[in-house]
Amino acid sequence: MLARLVAFDTTSRNSNLALIGFVRDYLDGFGVPYRISTSAGGEKANIHAIIGPQAAGGLALSGHVDTVPVDGQAWSADPFTLRRDDGKLYARGACDMKGFVASFLAAVPDFQAKPLQRPLHLCITYDEETNFDGVERLIDDLNVSALKPALCVVGEPSGMKPILAHKGRLSLNVHVRGRPGHSSEPRKGVNAVHAAAEAIAWVAADVRRLAKEGPFNPAFDPPYTTGQAGTVQGGSILNIIPEQAEFSLEWRDIPGDDATRHLDRLKAFVAANIEPAMHAVHQDTGFRYEIINLMPRMDLPADHDLVAAVKQVSGSNDAGTVSYGTEGGYYQNAGIATLVCGPGHIAQAHQPDEFVAQSQLDVCDNFVRSLADRLLT
Q1: What is the rounded average pLDDT of the residues 32-57?
Q2: How far apart are CA 321 and CA 340, in angstroms?
Q3: Residue spans in the chain of domains classed CATH 3.40.630.10
C-alpha cells in the first residue's frame, strides 16, 4: 500500500486527484462509503470514509498525503519509487506521512471484520504542508454532513509516542510600499527596504526578549513563543530608492500565549515609529499585512480517556509535546478530542532519502487495529 501511495507525486504544488482516485477505487472494492470534499478550484480533494455505523461519534484516523518538494535534494534513487534497504523504506512521503495512511488503508478489510459499535472514520487531506486548506475544508464538510467523530488520532511521525500538545503558528507576508527616486536624493523618496529592515529588526529584538522574559511553558522545547523573518526581498538596482519590499514572518506560540498579540505589537510599532516619516514624504506609502495561515494550538488534557487508550495500545508510557504544528489543532478547535501518534520520526521527514523504519510500520499496523478494538467494539 505504501508503495502505491508514494508512487503518486503529490507535492503540494500538484493535484492529488490521481491518488484520491486510487483510494476511491480501493474503498469501492470493499463497499466502504465515503464523502469527497474539494478545493475551491477542484484540483485537490479530501476523502472521509466511515466503516461501521454511519453516524457521528467514534474515532477518526487522519493523515495528509501532500508532500514537500524534492527539488534540489540529493536522493540516492527515484524518490517516488519505494526502496527497501536494511529495514528502512525510502521514498518521499514514506515518513511524512503516507506511512500512517498506508497502515490504516491496508487495515480496511480487518476493520470491516470487527464488530464495530461506533464508527471508524478514515480521513485523508490535502495541503497540510502549505496552508492547511484541506483540513479546514474537511471540517466544513463534517459540519455539513453531521458525521463528526468524537476522537481523532493524527498520524504525524512521532515514533509511535502520543503527542498531546503542539504550538500554534501565525504566518504572514508583509508588503512595504515606498516612493522611488534617485539614490543621490534620498529625501525625495521613501526607501521600502529600509522600512522593512526596521520592522524586521524590531521582530528580531522582540523574539530575543521572549526567550529571556517568556511567558514560558517547560513542556516545550524551546519553552517559549518563537518568531522569525523567513524571507525578504525588495529593490531593483542600487542607485534607485526601492519602491517595494516584502518579507515573511512567523510566530509559533505556546499554549497560554497568543501569536496575534505579537503581530498587533509589531503593527503598533510600525504605525508609531516607521510610517509617520514615510507618510511625511508621500501618503501613498506604508505597510500592508497579509495573513497566510493561523494554525491553532493543540492541547489535550493528559487525563483524557483517549490518552490512556493510546498509551496502552501503543505501548508507550510517555506522552509528549512538540514545537512543530499539525492538523490536530484544527480538529481540536472543531470540538474533536485529538492527539498525534504515528510511525517514523520528524528528523527523517522533508530530507533527501526520507524513510520510515519497517519496525515503526509494524507497530503502527498493530496500533490502528488494536485502537479500533479498544474504542469501537
Answers
A1: 98
A2: 9
A3: 2-165+297-376
Helix (H) or strand (E) holding 265: helix 259-273
Tell me which architecture the domain covering 168-294 has in CATH: 2-Layer Sandwich (3.30)
Q: Give CATH superfamily name and number for 2-165+297-376.
A: Zn peptidases (3.40.630.10)
35 HSE (CA, 13 A, CB side): 19
User: For strand 320-322 and strand 163-166, is the pairing parallel, antiparallel, or unpaired?
Assistant: parallel
Residues annotated catalytic, as ranges: 66, 128
C-alpha of 240 from chain center: 40
Distance CA 349, CA 351 (A): 5
pLDDT band at residue 256 under the 50/70/90 scheme: confident
Pinpoint the residues of the chain covered by CATH 3.30.70.360.
168-294
Give the whole-angstrom CA distance, residue 346 versus residue 157.
6
Cα–Cα dist 259/252, whole Å: 7
Three-state DSSP class for residue 259: helix
Q: What is the pTM of this model?
A: 0.90
pLDDT tens across 305-336, in order? 999 999 999 999 889 999 889 999 999 999 99
DSSP letter at 15 equals -
How far apart are the C-alpha atoms of 364 and 356, rounded to whole Å? 11
Neighbours of 372 (CB within 10 A): 24
Coil vs helix vs strand at 13 = coil
CA dihedral 273→276→280→284, nearest 10 degrees, is 120
What average pLDDT is seen over the chain?
A: 97
CA-based radius of gyration for the chain: 23
